[in-house]
Known about the structure:
Chain A is built from 8 helices and no strands. By secondary structure, chain A is mainly α.
Amino acid sequence: MKMYLPPPGGKPSRRGVLKKGLWGGALLTLGGFGALFFRKSVEVPLPPGGLQVLSAREYAVLVVLAQRLLPKRAGAPTVDELGVAATCDSVLAQADATSQKEFKQLLGLFENALANFLLGARPGTFTRMAEDAQEAVLEDWRTSRLSVRRTGFLALRTLVMASYFGNPKAWGAANYPGPPAGVHQPDAPVWRGGDVPRPASSTPLEASQRDAGVAMDAGTSPDVGAGAEPHP
Amino acid sequence: MSQGRIFTGEGLLQDTVLDCDVCVVGSGSGGAWLAHELVAQGKSVVMLEEGGHHTRREFDMTEARAYPALYQELGSRTTDDLSVTLLQGRSVGGGTTVNWCSSFRTPKRILERWREQHGVDTLSEAVLGPHWDAIEQRLHIAEWPKEAMNENNKALWDGLGALGYERGLIRRNVHGCANLGYCGMGCPIDAKQSMAVTVLPDAVEKGLQLYANTSARTLTWTGRRITHVNAEVLDPTTNKPTGRVVTVRPKVTCLSGGAINSPGLLLRSGLEAGGRVGRRTWLHPVLISIARFDRPVNAFAGAPQSVYSHHFVERGPGKMGFFLEVPPVHPMLAASISNGSGRFTQALLDQLPQLQVMIALAVDGLLPEETGGTVRVRSGGYSRYSFTYDFTDAHWEAFRFAQKEMAKLQFAAGAREVFTLHADPVRLTSVDQLHLLDEAPWKPLHVRVATAHQMGGCAMGKDPGESVVDPHLRFHAMDNLYVVDGSVLPTSLGVNPQETIFGIARWAAQHVGAAV
Lengths: 232, 516
């Protein structure tokens, strides 16, 4: 759920997060215009629901970045099976326009051949590199001496990690049992006042009748019954 | 007075103008207690809350639903350079809907410092004590029983015992708690005594008109008086403005939006107090230490915080203190706040049930060289502020020291490995390897820092040249504007802040009411 890329503009902070430092502004410019100068990115199928924020090219870059960041492993769903890049796109759709723009620039910068050459002496279009070269680029970003790259890596990793591990289908890979069953009540009443009297279940009086004190609370609340057992 | 109502974006289909005694902006720990007391005084109160009215009907204990719905900026609020991740609530109830229930009265030494160094001669244990008594009774604040402690907290408890460090059991605002462990995603059984299920409905019964999905954008003022609070209605689903506006014409206005948003609203309204609004923001910056045990810890289950240590809260002149607690560990937050390569995180998350996590919360704002955080508005958006935080050498000295102490505690409790949250995570396999921590970089963006406690930015104080609000929380340059939330704290606290804010708000209500 993290896009972490505050927009430029406003005062006194005129620079967005990636524009900090001597190189930041020039690098972002490369990220934005790379498509005009460099080879085509690989093409990947678009998600069934289409894209809301990212272009097809940016989406392709994010798909490959997510694949390298969370490599395929036995027993765990792949980032593609969980549609991680598409999840990122839908999260970005809820963010403000300037955050969206900066994340798009960040993806452009990863892909840009000239930037890869200038920053890491690895010329080439990211999505067309061999997998081990792509991993090396990501490692360059993570451990870079330039804060703009470390920040960019952090923004990317956070969004991808949240999109993958926020998906219940990834919980098994983390040996996470998920929330206890039988507790959440999707039909619980909602009280908003007006002409409706406050229901008894949410009054202090009723709550005080529920149990005598906090020492009784652990494990056996009468509200939730057997479903409230903590995880095994 | 007749019963009030909670309005939400779905129902606000017309532009609305409201006259009232008091407009409270924000429904969290400060605004809720303030409004509760004001309606009890018979005042007419309109409350504006930009977040939604979310209830246990929606609280399904999944992270992917909770963070975007219940936290500021979808859970992604940070400093501009991403060096600090900010967890801050955003819904009816504010932070109390998603916090981990830890309840502490303000330490005496902090109240004394405010009196001596900031001229806050209005607050003391004697003044706040009766308010805290009433609050603790209403919110069922009580020590969490040791026998209900989860394994994550027990590791801290055992480690502290083994090393002979000070330790204590945390008091929690819960009633009928089933020890589930999902406080951070909204309590699914209303056991947490958040503002949204306690004093806010109490206040609505007594006439409070609460407008959710209604974001105060600016204050209109003339001379020394606020005349209008101008708000936009937000779509509950998309969070974008619907085009409808709510205009409030109150006799008195109170800002209770918390330590980022209250300064933000003032700055957008041209109320800068000589540049002091939005400055000296304190965070209790958090350093996180991850341990792997060879037994299940299941830190995702059970009351998230039940043990603390204030052993290192005062470390002597020139040094920054810190206090120790544990966080809950769920996969989405753990993965996104971890560091290192993707493969490292995959390997770490493979062992999620064996992970034990400790946090050291630095007590910032007490050293003379500190300037803290700075909030500034940005063009092109309302929720996204520019926010910077200045680390000092004292921060990094404290973090390095705290990391060593947390590793010692974790090994003492039986950890097999300890990891830092460096971009290149430091891995320790025994307590003999603490020296490896000296070689790691202790600088912004080399190690992750988080915060769940935002304080300051509208500091209270006697001297208008040094503070934003006076010792009764009135904005110095205005006759009918108050700030009643965590932003008035002149320093951080050294304890989790909710009960401090509850107490100050309940106390402040008499002064706000008198100003009507």
